[in-house]
Design brief:
rod-shaped, alpha+beta, 118 residues, SH3 type barrels
């Protein structure tokens, strides 16, 4: 009686290995981008450490100025000179930007001098 040994051919094993490798590569390529890039955290920390004068434009168009003292996921605290500090919810912010020193000085000078009308 002759017995036949059953084992896979080497070519079959190679095909399975290459197919599995291709599936793994395809799965890696389809990974979605990360949801949190931490860019906002970096920006807020940088502005907080330097106490950069900031202008915040709210959703209703109102503009407030000051520097950011702290922040969290939903809001941040804006310190202002000569006015009460504000707790501002991020969802109410249209945009914010840095105030340049020259711009701030011009605004201060503009308040002291009357405007010319033609």
């Amino acid at each position: 009686m002759q017995r036949k040994l059953i084992r896979p051919d080497l070519s079959e094993v190679k095909e399975k290995m290459t197919q599995e490798a291709k599936e793994k590569e395809a799965a890696k390529k389809k990974m979605p981008p990360p949801t949190d890039t931490h860019a906002e955290n970096y920006y807020f920390l940088k502005q907080m450490n330097k106490k950069t004068p900031m202008a915040v434009v709210l959703a209703d168009g109102e503009r407030v100025e000051g520097y950011i003292e702290w922040y969290d996921r939903n809001c941040f605290k804006l310190n202002r000179e000569g006015a009460p500090n504000l707790l501002i919810y991020k969802r109410q912010v249209k945009y914010l930007f840095k105030l340049e020193q020259e711009e701030k000085q011009e605004e201060a000078e503009g308040e002291n001098t009357p405007r010319k009308t033609k």
